[in-house]
Amino acid sequence: AQSVTQLDSQVPVFEEAPVELRCNYSSSVSVYLFWYVQYPNQGLQLLLKYLSGSTLVKGINGFEAEFNKSQTSFHLRKPSVHISDTAEYFCAVSDQGYSTLTFGKGTMLLVSP
Amino acid sequence: DGGITQSPKYLFRKEGQNVTLSCEQNLNHDAMYWYRQDPGQGLRLIYYSQIVNDFQKGDIAEGYSVSREKKESFPLTVTSAQKNPTAFYLCASSTRTDGGTEAFFGQGTRLTVV
To answer: Is B71 helix (H, G, I), strand (E, B) or coil?
Structure first.
């Protein structure tokens, strides 16, 4: 069985500062990894995904993530955040060969001026 | 515009009543999913379907039922057997059933039991 751990439930940061949202996963098989963003009372939108190949993945809105197999991590980073990045961020994993996603509990990113 | 439509956006239900949440997609996706979201709990899989007339239980299927009579529709019924139904429900779909593709989400239905 898979599991996803997002270590921080909330991350407060000032505008234009860098941010890292942490995600660790456990699985006995090869996986696909995803980051989604959710704005209040809305559905989820894909930020980026790792399927194979380069371990550094670039996504929308200036976000990127690095897959580290030895540490079973997939941390999300942005070099300079904006007020509009305030949202909840979810890390998710699926086993290769299956389409169902297992989500972490989410990290609320709070960007203040 | 292509996408996933969930209706209604807000739903109130009396205890002991069944209620059905609608999910329609015009993306021609094979796979569809229902997730439940509670504050601080992330999303948990209720049911999923990879083909018409077939569906599988997810991690928290008790008290829920689904049908997949058409490719574009995957309604979820919250039955009176669901002990704590108040939650935000999200429907999603994806093109493939073997993973690796983006899941597209609807805007959600917030169900409140009164």
So the answer is: coil
CB B64 within 8 A of CB B76: yes
CA B114 to chain centre: 21
Which residue in A34, A96, A104 is closest to B42 by CB distance? Answer: A104
* pLDDT tens digits, one per residue of B4-28: 999 999 999 998 899 999 999 999 9
Stretch 94-113 of chain B: residues touching chain A, C-beta under 8 Å: 94, 96-103, 105-108, 110
Dihedral, CA of residue A10, residue A13, residue A18 and residue A24, to nearest 10: -10
- What SS3 string covers A61-83? HHCEEEEECCCCEEEEEECCCCH
Q: C-alpha distances in angstroms, A8 versus A15, A107, B40?
A: 19, 6, 11
pLDDT tens digits along A66-80: 999 999 999 999 999
- Measured CA to CA in angstroms, residue B108 lies from A11, A84, B4, B36 at distances of 25, 21, 10, 10
